[in-house]
UniProtKB/TrEMBL annotation:
Membrane topology, record value: Peripheral membrane protein
Protein known as: Cytochrome P450 4C1
Cofactors, names only: heme
Protein's job: May be involved in the metabolism of insect hormones and in the breakdown of synthetic insecticides.
Family of the protein in this entry: Belongs to the cytochrome P450 family.
GO molecular function: heme binding; iron ion binding; monooxygenase activity; oxidoreductase activity, acting on paired donors, with incorporation or reduction of molecular oxygen
Main location as per UniProt: endoplasmic reticulum
InterPro entries assigned to the protein according to its UniProt record, in alphabetical order: Cyt_P450 (IPR001128), Cyt_P450_CS (IPR017972), Cyt_P450_E_grp-I (IPR002401), Cyt_P450_sf (IPR036396), Cytochrome_P450_Monoox (IPR050196)
Swiss-Prot/TrEMBL keywords: Endoplasmic reticulum, Heme, Iron, Membrane, Metal-binding, Microsome, Monooxygenase, Oxidoreductase, Signal
Keyword Iron: yes
Gene that this sequence comes from: LOC118270862
One GO CC annotation: endoplasmic reticulum membrane
Positions annotated to bind heme: C485
Superkingdom of source: Eukaryota
Length: 537
């Protein structure tokens, strides 16, 4: 009876092999749990596992392997469909994670919006139904084990914090990201956008080049500036910090794709961990220095009216706001302040840089859309090289539509995940405790609710609200529920400001069909030369 499959024979999805043992539809609201599939592999991934438990886990795993072997003989039951050895060898390196993720998202879309994936004995759910996604995003506040790879970097930062810490800290941080604070960043966004225009000058009239690298550098500077509020001449955040931050992202991505490094034991002995420690030392030293100096400045009241040491800064940087909260409400320790700033910097610069890259690629591909955006900018801001202000922002309606359409088709975080700590009842299924749930933002962006042209780039769809899907959860680029993106307003303002300045000065040429994409820990273009630039006459 133990070998009895749940529901009718599940259709095997070949695209998911060999990483995924088996992906199939969820059948009905069955809570029946098959003891044969207890998640034996999962405890091994738990970072808090002791050596004894690890050995115990190994023993159980051996039992599992034997069971799997038995299972192959009983193939007619169609319980499991992968070669045991192949599984253990091939999953060690995920070669094309993005392809797997896309395939599974489409599989989910075609099969009712909720599918089960058995990674060995561990159950993962891929959800593309917007209502079910919202239920999970609201009920499950804990992140699954792979977020812990970033814990060393961000600890109590919002992305990796446990739900208890997250609740308190998010409440304290929310006001620092409100519309008023964000619009006070606009002059800084304009300054940084002008710097970007100048740095791009050297590419004008040349062969296609890697604009994404320019944007990464510029957005990192912008985010550091608004988070830390350094004076223009201050060089504390320099190339070394920027490179170390980028390299830290790369180490995260590498660990993610090498499954044998998911185990804290193997990772602790790896050269990747040594590299990560060295990089963390660099970024921590830089950040600690800034925090210490700012604390001293605030203490001795050696500050300007706006509370920063930088004479030319007209906004209240995040760091000052956090120090104030620590001072007045005893809200954070120094380490927590650094973890929040590090998290915000990391969450902000890569996502915004990638979005601008894709908007420019789309505009390069569709010259008529680019012309329309340019005309709108001219009509709103005039021919002068003026700053973008909070008053003319709402008038850039078409630019807003282009941006949203790009975010829909190229979401910088194509999926988010949650740990299922207790059974979750969805519209038609129940997700079982112990599993991991992946909410596919990529999948929901291509849901049938968007219409038959869901795959196409059509900014116009955003101009007619009645033509948009009636379910607002289906546009979830910034995630869903309470643990959604805190920097949404920041992102929209920064991106629009950069685009306005770049498009006023340059015409971009590109072809989205020649650009491939990749996703490890972040989503980005895989093609190195994405665009060509010409000066606007
Ligand atoms: C186009 C740009 C952006 C996109 C698409 C985006 C998307 C997302 C998504 C999908 C999440 C949920 C992550 C998860 O649950 O694993 C998230 C969280 C977060 N984002 Fe963004 N983001 C963007 C820009 C920004 C910016 C500019 C900032 C900061 C200024 C920021 C700060 C954060 C933070 C701190 C979190 C964690 C929130 C929490 O758990 O309470 N993001 N973002």
């Amino acid at each position: 009876n133990k070998m009895k499959p749940r529901g009718p024979s599940p259709p095997v999805y070949p695209g998911a092999l060999p990483l995924i043992g088996h992906a199939h539809q969820c059948y009905g609201d069955s809570k029946q749990s098959n003891s044969f599939y207890r998640p034996l592999y999962l405890p091994l991934l738990n970072q808090n596992y002791t050596l004894l438990q690890f050995l115990g886990g190994l023993a159980t795993n051996i039992r599992l392997v034997l069971n799997l072997a038995k299972c192959r003989i009983l193939y007619t039951y169609k319980i499991l469909h992968f070669e045991v050895l192949q599984y253990f060898i091939k999953i060690c390196i995920i070669s094309d994670f993005w392809e797997i993720l896309k395939n599974l998202s489409h599989f989910s879309l075609e099969n009712g919006g909720v599918v089960e994936i058995w990674m060995g004995p561990h159950i993962m759910y891929m959800i593309t139904d917007p209502d079910d996604s919202m239920i999970v995003a609201t009920k499950c506040m804990e992140k699954p084990y792979f977020y812990e790879f970033a814990t060393e970097m961000f600890k109590n930062g919002l992305i990796t914090a446990s739900s208890t810490t997250w609740k308190t800290h998010r409440r304290l941080l929310n006001p620092s990201f409100n519309q008023q604070v964000m619009t006070s960043f606009l002059p800084e966004f304009n300054t940084q956008a002008r710097n970007l225009v100048v740095s791009l000058q050297s590419e004008v009239g040349k062969e296609p080049f890697d604009i994404h690298q320019y944007l990464i550098k510029q957005l990192l500077k912008t985010v550091c500036q608004t988070s830390l509020g350094l004076a223009t001449e201050d060089k504390t955040i320099d190339v070394e910090y920027a490179n170390a931050t980028e390299d830290l992202f790369a180490t995260l991505a590498e660990r993610f794709t090498r499954i044998y490094l998911h185990l804290s034991y193997t990772y602790a002995w790896s050269s990747l961990k040594t590299k990560q420690d060295q990089l963390l030392k660099i970024t921590r030293e830089v950040m600690n220095k800034i925090i210490y100096r700012r604390k001293e400045e605030l203490k001795t009241n050696n500050k300007t009216q706006n509370g920063t040491s930088a004479k030319d800064v007209k906004f209240q940087p995040l760091l000052n706001q956090l120090l104030e909260l620590a001072d007045t409400q005893d809200a954070f320790t120094d380490d927590e302040i650094r973890e929040h700033v590090d998290t915000v910097v990391a969450a902000a610069y890569d996502t915004t840089a990638t979005t601008i890259t894709f908007v420019l690629i789309m505009l390069g591909t569709y010259p008529e859309v680019q012309n329309r955006v340019y005309k709108e900018i001219q009509s709103v801001l005039g021919n002068e090289d003026t700053d973008l202000t909070k008053d003319n922002l709402p008038k850039l309606v078409y630019l807003d539509a282009v941006l949203k359409e790009t975010l829909r088709l190229y979401p910088p975080s194509p999926c988010v995940a949650r740990r299922i700590d207790s059974d979750v009842k969805l519209k038609n299924y129940t997700l079982r405790t112990g599993g991991t749930c992946i909410l596919s933002i990529y999948g929901m962006s291509r849901h049938a609710m968007w219409g038959a042209d869901a795959d196409q780039f059509k900014p116009e769809r955003w101009l007619d609200p009645s033509a948009l899907p009636s379910n607002p959860n289906v546009f979830c680029t910034f995630s869903l529920g309470k643990r959604n993106c805190i920097g949404r307003v920041y992102a929209m303002l920064a991106i629009k400001t950069m685009l306005v300045h770049v498009l006023r000065k340059y015409i971009v040429f590109g072809d989205v069909n020649s650009v491939t994409t990749q996703f490890t820990i972040s989503f980005k273009p895989a093609t190195a030369s994405q665009l060509r630039l010409e000066l606007r006459s």
